[in-house]
Design goal:
With 453 residues, the chain is of the alpha/beta class. It has a domain of 89 residues: ANL, C-terminal domain (GMP Synthetase, Chain A, domain 3), CATH 3.30.300.30. It contains 13 helices and 21 strands. Helix 2 packs across helix 7. The radius of gyration is 22 Å and the shape is globular.
Length: 453
């Protein structure tokens, strides 16, 4: 651990956050303890937080004010029964159709806007209050710490790069902070053979303890490493993957290539870290202190081992309460206690977030996650789908809520073309993108499936 990182993680950062009135230091201490609380104690706290959330929604959120007025139910009825099923399940289409009805009035001070990456093809714009954001940061720090990825250890991120670089001063400050913290970021959307060689050299020379990556990007790099007979440094202790589902063959490929355990995470822009693996690797522990997660099959609670829809209630977002929000993902609930001693419930697996990969004529492999990350910043785009119909041609289908001007179209073509040189980008405006038989939008359709995780 270098001096700056040790001082920052153990002293400077907590002191700075307390000085700014942030909850994160206290939450981090609490979460280290609460992961081992008896499950009934955790559940009791969860329902206390749920009561506060529902009362806020009833008083300040138009949709829920109307629902409680018309349903004949009270918040006390729901809390006493410990049953959310009377409340409606809300999809992103409802939130997008009339966002103001789902937002608090008045909004908490410091409320800010975020947007999802649109992994189902429809980016969602929503509000977050500062306290909720601090809960999310604390949950993420704890989940990453299970893999040994703490402030002070060297980390390499194979993550989404900047399509629009931040302003000069912000970029300098970010670069300085990352350098002092021992962090190096590599663009997971730039996966040419030359860039993969560079990534392997960075890992060999920098000797990180932890590698954090998109699942598909890690797999592409792992296959390149195997073909090159590359050997990982002895310092590498863990690989954290996220953004896409990880299946058993992919895990085996990654562990063989990088010589360390793989830790799967499950998160989203709406909630950040929702679940993460502990060192026992027997499912993903849910972020129970911050989220109430249901797995529903045909509208009813799924049995352990049964695939169901993920439905999430965020216990701490006072700006835009997500209550029984169906995010479009599928998951399987785990069963029994984890041998690690943590009492947090687990997901046995997460299903259905794999995006096809694309190929450029020069051999570059590109994760389909580039499109959600790029297009979330274009408010005119309602939904999208990218299909590579030839090695040198890609069609980007867009459903628009407002006209997309030529400078915006040019920016999209340049960003995709820079990641896929030699591929012509055709933008096609359509009325509707039909879902797959499973009901989800297939965001990216590649030429082949050989690199699926």
């Amino acid at each position: 651990m270098n001096l700056y990182a040790g001082l920052w993680g153990g002293l400077m950062q907590p002191a700075y956050e307390r000085l700014r009135g942030r909850l994160t230091p206290g939450l981090s201490i609490r979460l280290e303890q609460s992961q081992y609380w008896p499950l009934e104690v955790l559940a009791r706290q969860q329902w206390q937080d749920m009561e506060a959330l529902l009362n806020l929604a009833r008083e300040r959120v138009p949709f829920y004010a109307d629902w409680f007025a018309n349903s004949g139910l009270t918040v006390e009825d729901i809390i006493q029964a410990r049953d959310l099923s009377p409340l409606p399940v809300i999809g992103r289409e409802q939130l997008m159709a009339d966002p103001g009805r789902f937002q608090a009035n008045p909004k908490p001070a410091g409320t800010f806007a975020k947007a999802t990456g649109g992994s189902t093809g429809r980016p969602l714009r929503f509000l977050v209050d500062p306290a909720s954001n601090q809960w999310r940061l604390a949950m993420s720090r704890r989940g990453y710490a299970w893999a040994g990825c703490r402030p002070g250890v060297r980390q390499v991120y194979l993550w989404a790069g900047d399509f629009t670089p931040p302003p000069g001063l912000a970029r300098i400050k970010r670069g300085l902070h990352r350098g002092l913290m021992g962090q190096i970021y590599l663009d997971c959307f730039d996966m040419t053979p030359a860039q993969m060689e560079r990534a392997l050299k960075v890992i060999s020379r920098f000797r990180p303890a932890c590698l954090v990556a998109f699942t598909s990007a890690a797999l592409i790099l792992a296959r390149h490493a195997k073909a090159r007979d590359w050997r990982p440094p002895a310092s590498l202790r863990s690989l954290i993957v996220g953004a896409e589902a990880l299946h058993a063959p992919g895990r085996q490929t990654l562990e063989a290539a990088f010589g360390c355990p793989v830790f799967e995470t499950y998160g989203s822009r709406e909630f950040m870290l929702m679940a993460a693996e502990c060192p026992r690797h027997q499912g993903l522990h849910l972020s129970m202190e911050n989220l109430y997660v249901e797995i529903l099959a045909d509208g009813q609670p799924a049995r352990p081992g049964q695939v169901g829809q993920v439905v999430v209630t965020d216990l701490h977002n006072s700006a835009q309460p997500f209550i029984r929000y169906q995010n479009g993902d599928l998951a399987v609930l785990g069963e029994g206690a984890c041998p690690c001693g943590r009492t947090l419930p687990r997901l046995a697996s997460v299903e259905g977030r794999v995006l096809d990969q694309l190929t450029s004529p020069d051999g570059r492999r590109l994760s389909g996650t580039i499109f959600p990350h790029l297009l979330k910043d274009f408010a005119a785009i309602e939904s999208f789908q990218a299909q590579q119909d030839r090695l040198d041609h890609l069609t980007l289908r867009l459903v628009l809520r407002a006209p997309l001007d030529e400078p915006q179209r040019r920016r999209i073509r340049q960003a995709i073309g820079g990641a896929l040189p030699g591929v012509e980008i055709a933008i096609q405006v359509v009325e509707r993108i039909p879902p797959t038989p499973s009901g989800k939008h297939r965001v990216t359709i590649g030429l082949g499936q050989e690199d699926r995780p």
